[in-house]
Design a protein that fits this description.
2 copies of one chain form a homodimer.
Chain A (H helix, E strand, L loop, with lengths): L9 H9 L3 E4 L11 H8 L15 H13 L9 E4 L1 H13 L5 E6 L4 H9 L2 E6 L11 H7 L4 E7 L11 H13 L3 E5 L24 E6 L12 E5 L2 H13 L5 H10 L6 H21 L14 E5 L5 H10 L6 E4 L1 E2 L13 E5 L4 H17 L4 E3 L2 E2 L7
Parallel strand pairs in A: 1-10, 3-4, 3-5, 5-6, 6-7
Antiparallel strand pairs in A: 2-8, 7-8, 9-12, 11-12, 13-14
Helix pairs in contact in A: 2-9, 3-9, 4-5, 4-8, 10-12
């Protein structure tokens, strides 16, 4: 089992805090947005006497309400097409375990959400990466690159749309390309749509919008990011493929039921005012515009403008982003402050890729983002491992 | 993935309810005991604004309090020896995945909790049953039976103590036998102690009480039954084996965190009055004494007195308990009432075993248990598949 690459810097962050250094956490996707009061109140005002198991597929009342939510985003499903999971994490695990046998392969465009590796190990399946590049803003790699990877063992393609870690929003055309590949090679299309509501450039095209691939598409969803309710541990596996639902339900029955309190919060979310997302989206968009502008203003930094989610990937003028991120915590501060970033190497499956890239989660308010960017700017100015040209490093004369 | 054997009767139960028949559910381990108000109130009075991820191993404050709870049952651990899991289910899954490779074997005395099969499939490990018998009240099988099963692939023995489905409470001597086996053959001892607080004949001997096997013992725990809080989905994996904790933590990190609300409820449970369990235990014991007496009073029925948990196994004078349980729902009622039982065949891994046995969960009050036993008595009197002597069936002249 691989360790989470984002977690390995934690001891350095803890040591920095002990030295009295304030850290701007741009390294994790824990939003600072308040969870809607209506959701928390629903839990707080609950009045049952026994905290019972729910249905293994989740409360029917919740699944029926989710049908309405999905209708609002033009996804038309029956409540029996939905299994409520313990976070989006479990939806991904159930998808792997229900659709792939041990030793089977799933193709994932890299960079990708690092925990997919963990679920692949748990399900004993192999990840085959198809590389996307920062130079195209992490657009879908060409269809030939996918087809080169397809073997007899290939059973699925997994995308995250909009993407974590790149923020890239797949276009309708790209989704049609994926549709063609999965139909031609008879593969599953796993679509992690955790960030569906946060699209800033154009409409979200769900895998569930694709026609005539009902048996291929398995959508993984979660309320964690949508409503800033990560601790609820409520997600969903959604598919019209009856055999997949039937198999996933057996995994769901083995673990008995998803969390009851979280389901109450999730059900209350469906009744939020229709303009709820508009406000959150506006806030994230403001932050995105700020962080992308600040990043591209730093000499040697390049950050393509992401179309969705709340992540941006940037290339930095450093020889090794892992070292740089550790140095930021261990040896740097500006006015007793520093930043924590996620080195991109952990999001690539192919060794050596992304070595000068980092992921930034814009989950802090604009004031904090500005201060964090001040830190980054100063840090890059003095960093001993700085590169003035690709491939060349400044001599490490500076020691903090 | 195998279907849960307990769930397959559900459609018959639903049909019976639609016909207006009341069903006494002795088939599942969902207690009717109220969840302590203090636990629910802790959740209802919580006042945070963001429902955040917790630490992947669970909130430190909760783990520190759990250390105190474990001290009260003579189990001495550090909070870093504990990973909070999403129900006991996840603790079992993490145990399998952290300690066994694909294709490895785990020995489990049968009959056993049917969902172990599901977790074994999920972790790609093989279950090797060692048969225990109703004639000895499901005592631990002789050590020779275990040793016969041990191969190069064997990595662990899993017990549930007190046992689900048999209610059997392993004695100190039996635990010492297990200690000797795991030491001799260098195996893990997985100990599912979900029902620890419900022991009616003697003291509970935890696997964590065994000396000099710290690296072998992995305890799986849950608050589901202890506090009648099944819907919280809060359990724990506990071990002093640092490598196992380190690996299990990686699986925990991949799925991010256990449910936040459930952890609040779990933490509040530690502050319950010290006599909390005494009352619940007294209630369960009263039910156990009643159900065992009523069962043994029915001609042809045998039910050994279980020492713990809230389950009893009984052999019935029928040719096929699966058919009988279905018939109870489909074709029988007494005063518009019937009972739902769990056929034991689903708890045995060896085919054909337990064909005339059922599991009864005494999770209903004594009045309901009496009425349920009235139903069973009447049903067995008229059941067409009744056996008067072992191996002989009454002619099926009666048709309801």
């Amino acid at each position: 089992m691989p360790a989470s690459p984002i977690r390995k810097l934690v001891p350095y962050a803890e040591a920095a805090k002990k030295r009295g250094v304030k850290i701007y956490h741009l390294n994790i996707g824990q939003p600072d947005i308040e969870t809607p009061k209506e959701m928390l109140d629903a839990v707080r005002k609950s009045d049952f006497k026994i905290l019972e198991y729910s249905h293994s597929a989740g409360n029917e009342s919740y699944r029926q309400k989710l049908v309405k939510y999905y209708q609002s985003v033009n996804i038309h499903v029956h409540y029996n097409d939905i299994i409520i999971t313990t976070g989006g994490s479990e939806a991904i695990l159930f998808g792997f375990m229900s659709c792939l046998d041990a030793g089977d392969e799933v193709i994932i465009p890299e960079p990708f959400y690092a925990n997919y590796n963990g679920f692949a190990v748990a399900a004993d399946v192999n990840v085959k990466p198809v590389t996307s590049s920062i130079t195209t803003g992490f657009a879908l790699p060409p269809i030939e690159d996918f087809e080169k990877c397809i073997t007899k063992k290939t059973k699925a393609i997994l995308i995250c749309n909009p993407n974590n870690p790149t923020g890239y929003l797949y276009s309708k055309e790209e989704m049609q390309t994926l549709r063609a590949i999965v139909k031609k090679h008879n593969l599953y299309l796993f679509s992690d749509e955790a960030y569906r509501e946060f699209c800033y450039e154009g409409e979200h095209c769900s895998a569930m919008h694709l026609t005539d691939v009902d048996d291929h598409v398995v959508m993984m969803d979660t309320i964690s990011k949508r409503y800033s309710a990560c601790g609820a541990r409520i997600g969903a596996l959604v598919t019209k493929n009856k055999k997949v639902i039937e198999t996933a339900l057996k995994f769901a029955q083995a673990r008995l039921s998803p969390p009851s309190f979280g389901q109450i919060a999730g059900e209350a979310a469906i009744d939020l005012p229709v303009d709820y997302f508009a406000e959150t989206k506006k806030e994230y968009q403001k932050r995105r515009d700020l962080i992308v502008a600040r990043l591209n203003n730093i000499p040697g930094v390049f950050c393509p403008k992401p179309g969705g989610a709340f992540y941006a990937m940037a290339s930095l003028p450093v020889d090794d982003a892992d070292m740089f991120c550790q140095w930021l915590l261990e040896s740097f501060n500006y006015k007793k402050e520093t930043i924590m970033l996620a080195p991109a190497s952990g999001f690539y499956s192919t060794p050596q890729l992304g070595k000068n890239e980092v992921r930034l989660a814009y989950v802090l308010n604009t004031e904090a983002i500005n201060k964090a960017m001040d830190c980054l700017e100063k840090a890059l100015f003095i960093y001993p491992g700085k590169m003035i040209q690709p491939g060349k490093t400044l001599s490490a004369s500076y020691s903090h």
